[in-house]
Amino acid sequence: MPYRAPIDDILFTMNHAAGMKEGLASGVYHDLADDFARTLLTEAAKYAEEVLDPVNKAGDQHGSRLVDGEVKTAPGWKDAYAKWHEGGWAGVVTPQEHGGMGLPHLLNSACFEMWTAANMAFMLCPCLSFGAVDALIAHGSKELQQTWLPRLVTGEWPATMNLTEPQAGSDLNALRAKAERAANGTYRISGQKIFITYGDHDMSANIVHLVLARLPDAPVGTRGISLFVVPKFLLNADGTPGARNDVKCVGLEHKMGIHGSPTCVMSYGESEGAVGWIVGEENRGLACMFTMMNAARLAVGLQGVAMGERAYQHALVYAHERRQGRAASYAGEGMAPIIHHPDVRRNLMTMKALTHAARAICYLTADATDRSHRLADEAARKRAGERVALLTPIAKAFSTDIGNEVASIGVQIHGGMGFIEETGAAQFMRDARIAAIYEGTNGIQAIDLVQRKLPMGGGDVVRREIVDMRATLDRLDEVNAPEFGAMAPRLREAVAALERATEWMLGKLGASVEEALAGATPYLRLFGFARGGVSLAELALAERAGGRAGGAIATARFFAEQIAVGAAGLEAGVTQGAAGVLNSLAALDVAS
Amino acid sequence: MPYRAPIDDILFTMNHAAGMKEGLASGVYHDLADDFARTLLTEAAKYAEEVLDPVNKAGDQHGSRLVDGEVKTAPGWKDAYAKWHEGGWAGVVTPQEHGGMGLPHLLNSACFEMWTAANMAFMLCPCLSFGAVDALIAHGSKELQQTWLPRLVTGEWPATMNLTEPQAGSDLNALRAKAERAANGTYRISGQKIFITYGDHDMSANIVHLVLARLPDAPVGTRGISLFVVPKFLLNADGTPGARNDVKCVGLEHKMGIHGSPTCVMSYGESEGAVGWIVGEENRGLACMFTMMNAARLAVGLQGVAMGERAYQHALVYAHERRQGRAASYAGEGMAPIIHHPDVRRNLMTMKALTHAARAICYLTADATDRSHRLADEAARKRAGERVALLTPIAKAFSTDIGNEVASIGVQIHGGMGFIEETGAAQFMRDARIAAIYEGTNGIQAIDLVQRKLPMGGGDVVRREIVDMRATLDRLDEVNAPEFGAMAPRLREAVAALERATEWMLGKLGASVEEALAGATPYLRLFGFARGGVSLAELALAERAGGRAGGAIATARFFAEQIAVGAAGLEAGVTQGAAGVLNSLAALDVAS
């Protein structure tokens, strides 16, 4: 079943759950015409539907292959990348002074969701450049910017991120890759990197690697890490790719999903050392990396949304077409389309509600990113930036968790056909699975939320978010329509549970961090239930106000009555279950 | 990491969560010595660890292949099957008068869990014979029994189950395969069957297909279905395999997991019609099929347990070995083993608690099966049989749902390595995924529980189960040990939630079945939380009484405090959310 970009749903979420409508009215998006978003999304949707989706399955079946030391991508992928470059899609958010379109992150996020839904494995390649461009703009020298940015921003050459080594995954303290100073201000990089997405491929004339490495005299730990640009091909005097740099792909991983995306073992400096240029100052590479990672985490969250949407569309069409058994709501002839079975409807509504909630959270985070740059008032910009920091781990982890759940439900709705690869549902589940792992596992996101984000402003940032949710609940209380069901009381309970769990967390962070960390994962999910449920309620209110009849009220109601009702159990797990988690070491002995 | 059969855990569950200890004392297992179970399990474990596990990965990587019309299994599999036959494992529960060992189902279930954990895809082949033997004993003529049972019970020839056709999956009314009466009392079968597990293979000299088909004058619907034995090879006068019957495998499915197990498209009667013998009476095939399916559903539930256990073992070892970062509970040198991070411990305890709870439910169901045959008192046998009927859909659906969840957490604990196929964690997740689908999807199990099982005895069967749970809670209340944490109050809340949801369901079944069906899935999960949590509490009580120090108290506590706390949310979804589910059709329009 081909992907159909849900432009109306996306615009509705941008306008009413994120702040696009308000931003257009108040001047945050002063440079945009009211209908510009639809125009851009329509073009981006064409690229998704007409270029990326048609080569998605070939990527899964063919995969990427290492042939004579060079990675060959799947049939049609090189052409799809050429069209990426032609379309100029790499530069949507890049400021115009650096050759981009300077458009809001919110718009780029919406485009990225659609492209990813059409072909997740392909989109991993271009999306790595988003963060690389951010890092070069924020930290790179003028010379470095002039050399590399034009090719990155136009999408002519994509970038890669080289962090992980076998002993250094989540913990970058253990990083060993070496960088030696060379005479001409350049560096010589050596060492092995693993899990390098698109570390090599045949889709572009050059590849710009961003590599973390350690100088010989660097302090131990993460304060001794530097970031380098290391191109696949060194440049000739005219800027064209010339001699091969001393870096190569020495192996590809055999993965559960995203087969089209080559996951490379990269070897730097097997001969004379790979030539690299430093980004920013020596030993300050981690700050540069964080610049790349924040945007990347939101992008990964959007992958969860995208795979959820894709799986939902696939299952929805199947449930309308596949007929089995009889059902009370079906009066037609023969067997009923399975959507008439209440349990199938429950499954589909679960898929839709979770996906739409995650989309709302991700778009809210993107909108806050825009506000952190665009608002006139400095204090307001700061607050928006803090909101981005708070919501990013939720956008990443909640969305990718539900991406997995939704893709698995999609397989289930297909019955036996779901387990057969030809159907396509299985690929979405296999592809989606990585997103909860990379860019910081979801467990690390939960720790980040609890340990770094909650204490911001002494707890004021998270408390502001709860106040913001309550404002929507107050509007919701004024609605007394039967079709809203128990939406208002259920969401009020969820927000109250979040508030109590938050205060418990803030109390424990000073006194007993381990207890707080023991509940980090259910706390993050509780946050997702509350924030997601309230954002869906905003869409329901907009639909009631005449926005559109896309099922937003039914979706928000389902989320509140069937999903957000889990809030109390999560709260109990967080606030009353820490000892049981922490004292479990003996029960987890290998011999027991 | 090789599989290590958890014999102590299994025996502990058999004795204290299922009724083996009581059964040995009271004479239900009068024919068994006290230490017989350990002796048998130790032998079965050897077969799992030394024969099945070593060829598991080959099955995943090599798969089964259709070569010149014949299915070739993976390297080493034919030999593993020969050892199955040699070991006589096929006949553990078969009555001695039919050539089996006549041992309790509980013992067979424990063996089956271990074999499946070692190699799920392989075990699909022999386990199909369990149900076929049951059906032949219950419904087959003496002649049919004498011809086929000896070869099935010894495991020399395995059986298959042929139900599904493209238009007839969950709904057997739509079945079209034809059976024509032939002169000599045999039948000629024709038609196509899909999703036939081990429909063809090279591991045995013959294959005994059990096939559902329709006679020309049969009533429409499921009351016109008959069951036939259709062997791959017709038998010579001396009983050895002779001429090829008119049945063949015409295609293999390309699946997400269980690659070693050939999933066949079977074509019957392309020439003169496949020769078949009827099992039982004409048009009464569905009753025979139900005989096969009840046992099969428990077996599939055990697959969920097995894959959960396997994934847990794999992740546990990794979490002890893999080092990243620092942790408060680790005072050693260098980076901490990741098990010292509270969030990793939470993940492992979730895996262990869910797996052990599902094991307890499955073993309880197996034990009730034994009691339904072995108890002296007829009324007690009947009650035990009703308990089997009640618990079977929960054993199947809850265990396979958590099998998926646990296997996915297993991938997560491995981080990026989990997504790499070489690690093995991904295979467990891919293999486990089918179990929630086949033998009646988990949605169908939930419907079966609500619509067919709850009304048994006017609700008395389910109410007896709740009374049984309360008896354990009363014992639990007497314990006032700090290490039990909030186990007692949390489980009491869960059982109370189950009771309220049950009474709501019973009320709706008469008045508004659709509302009951709308909540069937969360109701089943709620049942799993309550029954699983209480059974784990029984293990905790046994451990406290000096049983063994295997972490049963910590596991039961974790389940109660972190998992069973979800009961209230599920109850709300069932009892207060039906309208939102049923009214969702408009929100699920393909265009919205």
Could you describe the 3D structure shown?
2 copies of one chain form a homodimer. With 592 residues, chain A is of the alpha+beta class. Among the domains of chain A are: 7-65 and 74-153, Acyl-CoA dehydrogenase/oxidase, N-terminal domain (Butyryl-Coa Dehydrogenase, subunit A, domain 1, Orthogonal Bundle); 159-283, Beta Barrel (Butyryl-CoA Dehydrogenase, subunit A, domain 2); 445-578. In chain A, 56% of the residues lie in helices and 10% in strands. Chain A is built from 21 helices and 12 strands. Chain A has helices at residues 7-16, 20-26, 36-52, 56-62, 77-87, 105-118, 120-139, 142-153, 285-321, 342-374, 378-413, 416-419, 425-432, 442-453, 460-478, 487-511, 513-518, 520-544, 552-563, 567-576, 578-582, and strands spanning 65-67, 70-72, 159-162, 178-181, 187-197, 208-213, 226-231, 233-235, 241-244, 247-252, 263-268, 274-279. In chain A, the strands form 3 sheets. In chain A, strands 3, 4, 5, 6, 7, 10, 11 and 12 form an 8-stranded mixed beta sheet that branches. In chain A, helix 6 runs antiparallel to helix 10, helix 14 packs across helix 18 and helix 18 packs antiparallel against helix 19 (552-563). Chain A starts with 6 loop residues before the first helix and ends in a 10-residue tail after the last helix. The mean pLDDT of chain A is 96.
